[in-house]
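Before the break, one more example. Copy the sequence into your notebook; we will annotate it together after we see the structure.
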Amino acid sequence: MFVFLKVIGQYFRRSPAPIRIMGFLAGLILVSLPVTLPLYWLEQREGNSAFGIGILLTWFGLFLVGVGPWLRRVHGLKHPWQRLGLYGGKQWGRAWVQGMAVGIVGVAALYGLQIVLGWGGAMPLPANMGFILLEGSLAAVVVGLAEELVFRGWLLLELEADYGLSGALGVNSLLFALVHYIRPWEVIVATWPQFVGLVLLGVTLVWARRSPLGRGRFRRMSGALALPAGLHGGLVWAYYQVSVANIVQPTGVIPNWATGIDGNPLAGVMGLVLLGAIAVWFYRRSRESL
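Here is what the structure looks like once it is written out:
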């Protein structure tokens, strides 16, 4: 078994990035089949999305188990989790909170401006607002950290090894957007306007990953996942409150392509302007560590 794993490691060590990426993902899917196939069957029979979430959690669990050994054997890394961006101690937590705050304040400013301009109307808070806040917090932490570990952690590492910083930035952001369209065709058609926003979000999160954790002695400590995980989580949390609690409703004064098609700010001009401003801020910050 050890010899087999050694041969596999040597093969992928010499392979280009697309082969390495597909090989790792194919291995995860094959190993997960005893669990994911029954869950998929139950999801189709019961029509319950909870089984689909179970499939995603299974894949992510296997990713956490397999990514460390993969990086050790294929890339020769002695400390793979540090290379994935999980380092920095207390400063990591501070940077995560900072990223979270940027995301929350950004979304609040976006919808606050709509209310001030009369383009959106504030709605009364629902009776279960406390539960929505808690549920949104859980989604923000899990989605933010999980997606950043996969996309700005492992995937970015694989791409940078072959394509350098600029090439990896473009490919990573494009793949990040495309993965969100692994859905039924009618859903793809309905959500295509947000594609540009997803690419821009991907670019922003890469620049956040390349930004230093802080000032002073932390200025040279770049490459941690704290800022992108926090930013991603903050955007998820804030938008979750607006959409699920139905806090703001468009008034129809201006076309929805300005505020966001189907209420999605990534599919609107205002959302793109906001995200562009955050992107510029993180781009400038990422240059500080050079």
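The two ends are 43 Å apart (CA to CA). The chain has two domains: 1-83, 87-287. Try to locate both features in your own notes.
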